[in-house]
Specification:
Elements lengths: L11 H9 L3 H9 L4 E4 L6 H14 L6 E5 L4 H9 L3 E4 L5 H5 L6 E4 L11 H18 L4 E7 L6 E2 L15 H21 L3 E6 L2 E2 L5 H10 L4 E2 L4 E2 L2 E2 H11 L8 E5 L5 E2 H11 L6 E2 L5 E2 L5 H7 L6 H13 L19
Parallel strand pairs: 1-2, 1-4, 2-3, 4-5, 5-7, 7-12, 8-11, 9-14
Antiparallel strand pairs: 6-15, 10-13
Helix pairs in contact: 1-3, 2-3, 3-9, 6-7, 8-10, 8-12
């Protein structure tokens, strides 16, 4: 069944299959692929399905490239899942230079490691994770091409009425987390220029898996009768499966000096309207707190869509999936995006 024909997702097994299912563009990418693929930070929310999508695309075209997942793997389940799918796993603390130096060379690297939440308590650890780690990895993988996961938080908040920041806009990160993410980009830019590493800054916001994401946060609050903060009144989202696909194919777009790419959906979504959609679906009243502020974190994805194509899953379909998942008490990671934060304090 095509993904466009799927009306609901019933189980985590089905969800994982869809997140990692390669589309036609992914398979064509795999045909062009030269060398192995390594995912750094593969133990997080997005890493396992990204690594598995690469494995499935490569297997579909009968290539023998390795897919290697690297992480601290603090949760054994993620590592075991990957190994069952014939993905090699390597444990590594990226802050430990000696451990990084033991990693094998690899032609194609997707760098996902980073830290966001808890910055207020340990801003030093956030800065170390988001600037020292890229220095360690950038210097080690000098012969690779690298997609570096970043965030739309490197831009300032923009007028809510606008279509969002574009890649050529001046950067203006708000708060220490966002500043450290710009630090990651600058460190990788240095490595790219000095070592000639082809790079791409993959500025993602906000990915939605049915177990986490902006839509999921709003849906669960509505379901539980909690207030929806309207102070940041608009957001962009993208189905995590589409983000996975675009990340893999962004390897073809790497260059030195690096290029930046905003990765999100076409639509600008109103938080008020999202809350009202879920409430109407469940015969409830949405409890709304405050009014929409004048500014929001918004990104314009025109460039990425022109280079990589439109997302397969539009916001309307994603909304239906989230509503059905929450209605049937699907699992929730309990890791809120904090999309409503305007002061950069995560």
């Amino acid at each position: 069944m095509s993904i466009a024909a799927i009306k609901s997702i019933a189980t985590e097994e089905q969800l994982e299959e869809l997140l990692s299912r390669p589309n036609g563009a992914d398979i064509e990418w795999a045909r062009r692929l030269k060398g192995d693929v390594m995912v750094l930070g593969a133990g997080g929310k997005m890493g396992p399905s990204l690594a598995l999508r690469a494995r499935r695309a490569i297997d579909t075209v009968g290539m023998g490239h390795r897919v290697i997942a690297v992480s601290r793997f603090s949760e054994k389940a993620a590592r075991e899942l990957l190994e069952r799918q014939r993905i090699e796993t390597l444990p590594c603390d990226f802050l430990d230079r000696q451990q990084v130096e033991r990693l094998p060379a690899c032609d194609n690297v997707l760098f996902m490691a980073g830290r966001k939440f808890g910055t207020g308590d340990r801003s030093d650890l956030t800065w170390a994770s988001n600037t020292i780690v890229p220095a360690n990895l950038g210097l080690h993988f000098g012969g690779s091409r690298m997609v570096v996961f970043s965030t739309g938080n490197v831009y300032p908040l923009v007028e809510s009425s606008s279509s969002g920041s574009v890649e050529t806009d001046s950067l203006g990160p708000v708060g220490e987390y966002a500043q450290s993410c710009l630090g990651r980009e600058r460190v990788m830019e240095y490595c790219s220029r000095e070592l000639g590493i082809p790079c791409l800054m993959f500025r993602l916001n906000y990915a939605v898996d049915l177990r986490y994401g902006v839509l999921v946060d709003i849906a669960w609050k509505v379901r539980q009768g909690k207030a929806i903060d309207l102070s940041v009144g608009y957001a962009n989202v993208i189905w995590q499966g589409d983000a996975n696909s675009m990340a893999l194919r962004s390897l073809d777009l790497c260059q030195s000096p690096p290029r930046a790419l905003n990765v999100t959906g076409r639509e600008k979504l109103s938080v008020r309207e999202l809350a009202q959609y879920f409430a109407a679906r469940w015969g409830q009243e949405a409890e709304l707190a405050g009014t929409e502020g004048p500014r929001a974190l918004l990104s314009d994805s025109t460039l990425s869509r022109s280079l990589l194509g439109e997302p397969e899953v539009p916001a309307s379909q994603l909304l239906e999936w989230v509503a059905d998942w929450v209605e049937h008490d699907g699992s929730y990671l309990g890791k809120p995006t904090k999309y409503e934060v305007a002061d950069g304090k995560f």
